[in-house]
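Page 42, continued from yesterday. The earlier attempt failed because a stray header line got pasted into the input along with the sequence. Redoing it now with the clean sequence only.
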Amino acid sequence: MPKEHTPVFGYVRVSTDNQLDNYSIEEQAERIKAYCKAKGWNLLYIYTDGGYSGGNTNRPALQKMLAAIKRSEAAAVVVYKLDRLSRSQKDTLTLIEDSFLAYNTDFISINENFDTSTPFGRAMIGILSVFAQLEKDQITERFTMGRIGRSKAGYFHGGGNAPTGYDYRDGLLVVNEYEAMQIRELFDLFIAGKSANHIWKLFEKKYTTNWTSAKIINALRNSIYIGEVHFRKQSYQGVHQPIIDEQTFREANRILTSSDRERKKTTTQKSPFRAGYLLSSLVFCARCGARYSANHGFYKCYSRSKSSLRFVVDPNCKNDNWRIEDLDKLVIDQAAHMVSQKNILDDVLGEDRESEPEIDVNGIESRLMEIDKQESKLLDLYQIGSIPFENIASRLNALSTEKEALRQELQKKNDTPASDRFPDAVEAYQEGFRFGDTDTRRLLLSSIIERVAIDGKLVRVYWRV
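This time it went through. Structure tokens are written below.
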């Protein structure tokens, strides 16, 4: 227990939820003053945090007091009640151990009648901190139950982050006619066969609303447009006005997940978040086995660039970067030379090839389902405003690239032998490559090239035979 005339600080706190309870700032301050006077302590200053939660230590007055303690201006801190310091067990113990006692400053709670200068007081700190944490958890649980109840009653809980097509006014979703018109057009275009990229580019020129490919896909999946609300993966009938009829929504989602549509997609359509580079998904590192990505003017080994940690194979790989136009030209020239020379084509078809490893169909299908769930979760988080698109674009890109590679592996299981298909692929390449657009050229290249291996300045093309 501090001796008479010991300099001490007082600390009081009231959260926004407790402004009208029995722990008002004035009441706490009066109790602290009376207590210090009775003990004969010199109360230097009462630090006050009004309207701050006890769930964290990010409070201005608390931080000022901690700075003063480090300057050894007081020998003790007095509070009216333990939870005024913090409602977090971890924060309470950290403050007492690391911020008070470490600087020879005791902690005293009037209501609980103990202080850290006694062994009993230190033991009680830990026990009471547990109950403070329990109360905080119960408040959180009650808040969550309130959100569930609100969702069951049909009310949107996203606050000001209303989905495109609606405004949020007085706790309700209200149709924004300008944006709703775009939502209806979006669904109509998609059902008519337009891709997410096509719709995005069209809307970018036509409307002032900020659209992206991810936002297009997310809107197609969001059943809030047929009058539903969501919370914790559960859907409830909402009280807001639908923008899309249920038949249109179901048809759009049927197409979105249709296997026929997947088979008809071009490489770029399958991965709308990836830039349209000619050799995307075809280039590999011959040293570490990682894929090469295309960005900022170069094809780069994932292990070296580390732009997506998921695809890093050897963090120490130093394989060369290649300028995109240089590698594209080199591969195109090799392909042109091969398809134009009958003797070279015959040699390619006659090459001895190692037997392909057995494809783990169950493993691939399981991973594809997992990727779909991850993509859906990321897009849901973006739609409700939890994560900005810039933070998830690279992850979506990586997932899309991986999914495409897995689908290609799965397709091999029932494919006609590559050597039988190769002459037809060469013929199609000769007829269409020269005048095709980027999507067509990429598709034709991938039909005759299995992969391009980079080893420094050495480039080897593996044909799909």
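Notes: The chain has 18 helices and 15 strands.
Reminder to self: strip header lines before submitting.
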